[in-house]
């Protein structure tokens, strides 16, 4: 069909009027009257009653001439001596000759009648023209109405034919539009999924083989045309659903190391979720295979990995497959009150994946990427596949791949690092001292390494800060101080080993603040000790000595010795001095003991 | 002394209009092994100036996006019609790691530089086959020689023992792309001016 235009044929009115239409659709046309019939009809309309007397005179004059013509004809027949016999001798000598001559006689008589009528008309016109009136031939009313109806029916028939053509075109246009809509949907699906035409069906591929996956499940689905020319997807039973792999860290007492997210996902059926289901199956199967190789017991839904004494990682596969998903979707919108059935169904909801689950998924995708064929070829004229010999030789050969570590080892490393990270964060957040304050800045390098820079800050206007660095790996956390001290702690020993070191650094910072304040007033530092934390200061004039100590409770103990006598040390009661904290009070003490000449 | 056996290249060519290029790329992503890699190559064509071998051409092609990868010096034989369904020709290819040295060598052999062109497009792989959708530019020209269409080429390069299989693969790809692009044999003779 040419979309540019549609040919519509219209019939013109027939040349002849339609007398009737048969049931089979054929038309019977009314034949037009012949000349003689029309003349007879005209003659029948002539009124001869007004001038009968003149007509009789005319007829009396004309009749003898006609009678003489007939006698001549009869005489000619008699003179020939039996004209009929002679006529019969001319024609066939049987009964058919009578009908033959009869036909001739009838046609001649008809012609004679017409001629006579014409002569009468001419006489009437010559004698009494005003007595002759010709009326128009009146049509039969009933026949006229019937003809009108037939004309209307004929027009209806023409328009009906054109309407059928238009209707057919509209239907084909609708089909074409639906086909275009269906093709557009197919194009949209083809943009996201690999589709392939197999015989009369369209099959798709949900697997990640093009991304490098080697999972044996084909992940195929079919596209079928629905009644409204759209496409519906047919998924296999084991891919009809949604699944996810959740990794959680638990201590030996069953306590979760990380808080679980409260919101959960309601499972839905879609191609993306089916692909995620396939990926989750592949991931869990890979973990189970490696567990079996490592001698760890693996269940159908969960695997427990020991990481450290008192700490284990739980890898669980949450899967919702089948028509229960539709029931859950329906029941979720039915009522707001949770019924027992809904509570049971809520147990089947999928948890939101946490950081460890995402990290595990990224590990698998990275493994797929490593297994993916090399891009190219570059330039495009190069052979599509190089031989192994070519790959391994030459300056541009492919580097030898590193020995691949399993997913289980990497997952364990990530989990240990996460646990260490959590322990260090708890240590810093639970800092027991108000002075000095602790300020830290995190820097995450990768999923198995992170750093945190710690600063000791005094609640004062000075900018004196002491720094320390904690590096967190997958096995241990290492604390580095500015004085070069290095302390390493494994999982479970972070608080026990790193906190005392941090407290010592805090003491050192406090003494550093005292040194800074005393130096600014001209005092001299005689001795300094880190453990126990103590400093011995001498006044600028040498007449006074000050001993600053930190006891076990991290409180300042200040003793003064005047006159240079090393035996008489008097304790300074800092509680009675004004000041927001011990350092400010110590500043007052230093200021009070400093001679005026040096202030 | 072993003689180097030339590879046979089996190919079909066609073209696709600009509005339908994206449809073709989507279809190719579905039927090929690789999702498609962008490429931009420059090719220099050298013609032999030695009398008697004036029709011989050597082609030096390198990647502009990956200059560290080796270039290829190619000789393409006369297209043959051994199989009436596809075109085939002998192809010699040698990877070269220095463009300047390759040019000097070719010119020393008696070849003269004839012309350059740049091919830019997407290449897909399906086993040993390559499907390329690309446009041709003159070096320095912003517009393609055919702005409203792209060239489509399905080719397979391999030893003669694999020719039969490659022919079937090429025909299979041709059938799958039939609704979008018509891949057929084309006369390789240059049009008369």
From TrEMBL, chain A:
UniProt keyword annotations, A-Z: Nucleus, Transcription, Transcription regulation
InterPro entries (alphabetical): Mediator_Med17
Highest taxon listed in the record's lineage: Eukaryota
GO cellular component, as recorded: core mediator complex; mediator complex
Keyword Plastid: no
GO molecular function terms noted in the UniProt entry: transcription coregulator activity
Subcellular location: Nucleus
Keyword Nucleus applies: yes
Annotated region described as Disordered, given as residue ranges: 70-91, 328-351
Biased composition (Polar residues): 328-340
Primary localisation category: nucleus
Any GO BP annotation: regulation of transcription by RNA polymerase II
PANTHER family documented for this protein: MEDIATOR OF RNA POLYMERASE II TRANSCRIPTION SUBUNIT 17
Record family assignment: Belongs to the Mediator complex subunit 17 family.
Protein name from the UniProt record: Mediator of RNA polymerase II transcription subunit 17
UniProtKB/TrEMBL annotation, chain B:
Biological process, per Gene Ontology: regulation of transcription by RNA polymerase II; termination of RNA polymerase II transcription
UniProt keyword terms in alphabetical order: Activator, Nucleus, Transcription, Transcription regulation
Any one Gene Ontology molecular-function term assigned to this protein's record: transcription coregulator activity
Subcellular location, principal: nucleus
Localization of this protein: Nucleus
Domain of life: Eukaryota
Gene Ontology CC: one annotated term: core mediator complex
Stored InterPro entries: Mediator_Med18
Family label: Belongs to the Mediator complex subunit 18 family.
Subunit details: Component of the Mediator complex.
Stated role: Component of the Mediator complex, a coactivator involved in the regulated transcription of nearly all RNA polymerase II-dependent genes. Mediator functions as a bridge to convey information from gene-specific regulatory proteins to the basal RNA polymerase II transcription machinery. Mediator is recruited to promoters by direct interactions with regulatory proteins and serves as a scaffold for the assembly of a functional preinitiation complex with RNA polymerase II and the general transcription factors.
UniProt-recorded name of the protein: Mediator of RNA polymerase II transcription subunit 18
Organism phylogeny: Eukaryota, Metazoa, Spiralia, Lophotrochozoa, Platyhelminthes
The gene coding this protein: MED18
